[in-house]
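worker-03 picked up job from queue 'complexes'. Input manifest follows; two sequence lines, order preserved.
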Amino acid sequence: MKVKGKIFALLILLFLLLLAACSDDAGTNEESEGTDGETTEETASDEDADPFGAYEEAITIAIGQEVDPTDTSLEEGETPLNNKYVNHVKENLNIDMEHAFTASPANYDQKVSLAIASNDLPDAMIVGPVELRQMVEADQLADLTQVYEDYASPAIKEIIDSTDGVALENVTFDGKIMAIPNSQASADGIHNMWIRKDWLDELGLEPPTTLEELKEVARAFVEDDPDGNGEDDTIGLAGPDTSNKLYANFLESTNNLYGFDGIFSAHHAYPGYWIEGEDGEPVYGSTLPETKDALATLRDMYAEGLIDREMGVREDSGESVISGKTGMFSGPFWMPYGPITDAVTENPEANWQSYAVPLDENGEYTPHLSTPTSSYVVVRKGYEHPEAPMKILNNLFAHESEFDHMEGGGGPGHYPLRLVYAPADEMEVTTVAMREVLAGTKEPEDFYDMPAYKLIKNDVDTVFDTKLEPYDNMDIEYWDISSTSFTRAYSALVGTAPQVDTEVNGVKSLIYSQTETMEGRWVNLKKLEDETFLKIIMGSEPLDSFDQFVEDWKQQGGDQITEEVAEVVN
Amino acid sequence: MKAKGFAKHYYLMMLPGFVWLFIFSIIPMFGIIIAFQDFNPGQGVFNSEFVGLETFKYMFQLNDTPIIFFNTMFIAIMKIIGNLIVPLVFALMLHELRYIGLKRSIQTIVYLPHFLSWVILGGVMLDIFAYQGPVNQLLGVFGVEPILFFGRADLFPFLVVGSDVWKEFGFNTIIYLAALTGINPALYEASGIDGASRMRMLWHITLPGIRTTAVLLAVLGLGNVLNAGFDQIFNLYNPLVYSTGDIIDTWVYRTGLLNLQYELATAVGLLKSVAGFILISVSYYLAYKFTNYRIF
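worker-03 finished. Artifact:
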């Protein structure tokens, strides 16, 4: 019995030790954070503010970074922490990069949520509007008002100012700037229709313009065996996969792949957006009759087999684009950075072209437009060098066009804390410039002095590497696919062409951020919406369940939220 | 005296288990306080504002709450039943095999899926039941229109249960086979001499012989009735089947981790724990009553 008792005592002792060890850790952490916070303010005001100045002594910053495990663009010996981008930061600013965490693109948001919930934050990371608000309320963020004032480079300030104050408004809480906003090209938020032109030609069809013509093309793609393999295995119009949405919404207004954005907006339906109702008050687009009409159209198309049968269930709708089974899908201009480059490598005859379709009944193109800013760099409260992330971004913007020509692999996504800074019309201007150079009406040198358009010099210089004669025909056979400039040039000359050649009568959301009640209720309202709409389209619920949805939505907090939105807007 | 020396090793062997339990089960228990707070990660568990039962009120207003509890129970109970009967029947059939080599190889093959994770098997399942997958092609031969299996809310629970039983029955069979070998062969010989047929032997010797094992497994399974299998469902489901396939664990994961509604997720998790505690107590009482099996 004695032995037993001793061992029990030992076990209990061990537990106590463990407990003590745990609480000890927590204690010291808090203390050190507290003192760090005080020193920060001193150093920040003592130093001369130089947006590009290197630190005399190397400092370390631990960031949360997205690392794509399937990305093979890095060269032998390079790692996410050892490549030309990270080394550039080290050489120019004397900042050592560390990873507080890494996550694949699909899991990054989750990892950020986890870091917020456990209050175990990296020194800096990129977050979206929802997380930003959460972190501000949890008092986890450093006040960057002074940092932005003193350290943001003039070029970046100029671009942020070009958003008419929207970018700064989104990160200002109680008069303080709590994050560094990005500013993206509006092209990210315009979802055009990508169509296999070689299939159109094969079947003797013209590119569609109206919704009816789009349906006819989809029907032909499904029924008339456009790939000529004798099997009934083609998809007319791709649908969203499990990581994409039926349509972009006011919180995530850009880069929705394989959605039905265009079909909704051709009905003048803007689900997921806050728009002005008939009485001038804000209404939520998803609850309007136009949305019901659009859902009816989609429901018919799905029932007739014109839309991918496996929409909503697929892991990645891009796979069937690459393997040549899909005839049409919706996406922004940069789809060559998505599945298209792979698709044309797989099959050099896959002539993917982009069109501003479908048009509304008046023949106008009326897509929804995005917010100029949607991602933010945040800095942990108590980090000793809150200006370091700003310097890293200054450095990126000043040197972005040089990276492509440096030794070493890896795409621009490897730059730590990379935010996109682009004038709203960056892509449209680039497209026009490249066309003029191709046509010979202008020389590449004419575009050298446009610092805000940071990639344009490179674009006009390299366009002849990939575009073959005739220069005014964009079909895939007149391109050198193997050139390193192909993806970028194809995104500009083909992907951006629709909004250059068509007049865009776009619709903006009244707000692009959350209101207070949304924090608690929005998730469940959104789930209700997503589930109902998906089921209506796929035919597992009647079209009239839309009316029930509108009622439920209003009851479960929608009315209250609408009032809040009205307050914000007015 | 020797026996006491022995005991030391046992305690030492228990130690890692206890440490694990302490770190991963006891310490996190303090986190349930989040359910009663307006939790603010910046201020932590100790300093967040206390709001009482606010979150629980909201939880019971939500349409989702009854649905996820029903789904969890429905899927879990079906799994318990399936995982009881299928391995039992299979073990009985295997037991009748005379050819030992064949018996062994079948046994090995059927329990292989047990060792694969749902991440892999989930992908395999999705492919097999895809719109143009093998199952639909087979159905096509008989003139059946292709079915989007994992988009059908009415089929989803059965796919989940079926695939779980398929994955686990080989492993559970082993337990029954062990119980079967425990039956005294003399009983079979004696009944053989008395002229009993195979079916009679099965009914009067084999089944009573493994009754205790079967009842014990069934009763202990009750403790799992609120665990419908997070990793399986997480890898198979999509918004189309939330109405019948979303279980407490997946819902808590999405609400708490993806959507930052910590309080709500904790409250639902707490409710699950309370219900689970009651069910485990009942099942252990039943286990004691029917099979004299005691843990405490």
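worker-03 released lock.
Residues 18-46 of chain A have pLDDT under 50 and may be disordered.
Chain A has three domains: 49-184+373-414, 191-367, 426-501.
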